[in-house]
Structure formats: structure tokens, C-alpha cells
Design brief:
This protein is 43% helix and 4% strand. By secondary structure, the protein is mainly α. The model has no long low-confidence stretch (mean pLDDT 79).
Length: 171
């Protein structure tokens, strides 16, 4: 039976990386795990610490770490995070922080309508020729709202003899 910490490790290992087996975690997801679980607090443990520890425990040319290496990393981060505690206690505390945590998707980009977008799309503030393309309710008039419609007569615009071709040919 996998421990809570291992389950959390596996959930983060596959997060955003469908090719990942849940037995190894990459640096990005390792950092995310540390951040989402509150191991990285920005004071005792910073993102730099997390990156350094990750590099330290991984195999020389590997890009991921196993759960065993992850435990090493957590021991080290635990001692930074919970100063003055025995390594085992600190590790337990770190694992407590991880319990039942899922990769957070809060803060994932959502469409925003902040200030500028509202201002730029408010048709009542349009001036000049743009103003004419919308009715009072702000709904666009579409193609009818454009003055300069092109006619597909086949003649260059402004040609005075437009429409006279058939007359010449039929003579």
C-alpha cells in the first residue's frame, strides 16, 4: 500500500505530463508539489532551495527523480523548513503537509475582462467611421454598416464606361 506521501508524489508526477510514469517526477512538478503542499514557504525554503535539492538528489544525467530520491530531497527540505527538529520528525511534518494534496489548478489563466478590454470593446465610445458600424444597442450592423461596399461588376471603380461592353459586342 502506497503511503499518503507516495500517493501525492504520484499525483504530482503525472500532472501536466501524460508521458510520465507515476514513479518519477520532473523538476517542474517537484517544484509545484513543494509549492502547493506548503513545503516551499518563500522564507525557510525558497524555489532556489527546491531546485538545488532536486539537482543534488537526481542521477547525474537524469531529468527526473524516483520516489526514493524524492524522500532524500524531502529529508533535506524538511530540515530547512522545520529548523531544530530531528530529520525524522521534520520528514514526518513534510509528509503531513503533503497528505491528500492534489496539484492545484488555481491561478491557472482564466479569460479576464480587466479595464482595457471593456474600454476597447465599448461600442458607445467609438467615434468617426467606426461609430456608424453599430446600432444604438451596440450590436454590429455587419456588412451593411460599411459605407465602402465593393461591387463585383468586373470594372475598375470609377470607370465611366461601366456596363457598355455588351452594347459594343452586340453591334
Amino acid at each position: 500500500m502506497a503511503s499518503e506521501a507516495e500517493k501525492t508524489f504520484q499525483r504530482f508526477a503525472v500532472f501536466g505530463d501524460s508521458s510520465s510514469s507515476n514513479s518519477e517526477i520532473n523538476n517542474k512538478n517537484f517544484s509545484k508539489l513543494c509549492k502547493d503542499c506548503g513545503i516551499m514557504d518563500g522564507k525557510a525554503v525558497t524555489s532556489t532551495d527546491v531546485d538545488i535539492v532536486f539537482s543534488k538528489v537526481k542521477a547525474k544525467n537524469a531529468r527526473t527523480i524516483t520516489f526514493q530520491q524524492f524522500q532524500e530531497a524531502m529529508k533535506e527540505l524538511g530540515q530547512k523548513r522545520f529548523k531544530g527538529k530531528k530529520p525524522e520528525e521534520a520528514l514526518e511534518d513534510v509528509y503531513k503537509l503533503m497528505e491528500g494534496k492534489d496539484p492545484a489548478t488555481s491561478g491557472v489563466t482564466k479569460a479576464t475582462n480587466v479595464g482595457a478590454v471593456d474600454r476597447l470593446t465599448d461600442t458607445s465610445k467609438y467615434t468617426g467611421s467606426h461609430k456608424e458600424r453599430f446600432d444604438e444597442s451596440g450590436k454590429g450592423k455587419g456588412i451593411a454598416g460599411r459605407e465602402e461596399m465593393t461591387e463585383n461588376s468586373g470594372y475598375v471603380s470609377g470607370y465611366k464606361g461601366a456596363g457598355t461592353y455588351d452594347k459594343k459586342v452586340s453591334k
